[in-house]
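Box S1 | Example of a co-folding query
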Amino acid sequence: MMPTLKTKRLTLRPFTLEDSATVQKLAGDKEISSTTLNIPYPYEDGVAQIWISNHEEKFEKKEELVLAITNKTNKNIMGAVGLKINKDFNNAELGYWIGKEFWNNGYATEASEKIIDFGFNKLMLNKIHAHYLVINKASGKVMDKVGMHQEGYLKQHVVKDGTYHDIIQYGILRDNYIKKVKNG
Ligand SMILES: CC(C)(COP(=O)(O)OP(=O)(O)OC[C@H]1O[C@@H](n2cnc3c(N)ncnc32)[C@H](O)[C@@H]1OP(=O)(O)O)[C@@H](O)C(=O)NCCC(=O)NCCS
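Box S1 (continued) | Returned holo structure for coenzyme A
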C-alpha cells in the first residue's frame, strides 16, 4: 500500500483519478514543463489519468513512489513529489513540481524533506540524488535546503525545446543523512 505522509503544513498522499483535472491544470502550465524533462506541454487530456493509474503498480514493484502534495487544512492539491527507485543500486532520484500559484512558500522543500526521510528510514535507500537545469535556480535552492550537496556540473547535458542545457547533479548519502538528523 502506498503511504500517506504528514508534515507540519502538508499531507503527502497517493493521487486518485479524481485528481486528474487538477493535475492537468497545475502541471499543464508552460512554466512547469519548461524546467522539467518529463512533463509535456501542452498537457493533453488523458495524460494525467495514465500517469496516476500507474503509481500503485510502480510502488508495489518498488520502482517509484509518487505522492500528491496537498494542503493539510483545505486539502487542495498543490503539486507532486516522488522518488524514482533504482533497485540494483539501492538509490532513488528525487523529483517534484509545485503549481505556480503556490510557489515560494517552502512547499517543495517541506515535501522533499519528508519523502527523503521516508526513502532513508522506510525504503532503506543508500542514496538519493536529483538534478536541475542550471536556469532553474529555485530547484537548486530546494536541493540545498533539504541538505543535498552538489556532486557534478554537466555541460550541455540535455536538450529542451531545441536548446542545450547545463545540469547540476545533487545527492545525499544515507550515512550523512542519519548523522545530520542525529545532530539536529
Ligand atoms: C522548483 C519548484 C518545485 C520550487 O517549488 P517551491 O515550493 O516554490 O520551492 P520552495 O518555496 O520550497 O523553495 C524555493 C526557493 O527558491 C527561491 N527562488 C525562487 N525563485 C528563484 C530564483 N529565480 N532565483 C533564486 N532563488 C529563487 C525561493 O526564494 C526559495 O528560497 P528561500 O526559501 O530561501 O526563499 C517550483 O518552482 C516548480 O515546480 N517549478 C517547475 C517544475 C520544476 O522545475 N521542478 C523541478 C525540476 S528539477
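The pocket of coenzyme A is lined by residues 32, 35-36, 96-98, 103-109, 132, 136-139, 141-142 (CB under 6 Å). Strands lie at 5-6, 10-13, 64-71, 77-86, 91-98, 127-133, 149-160, 163-173.
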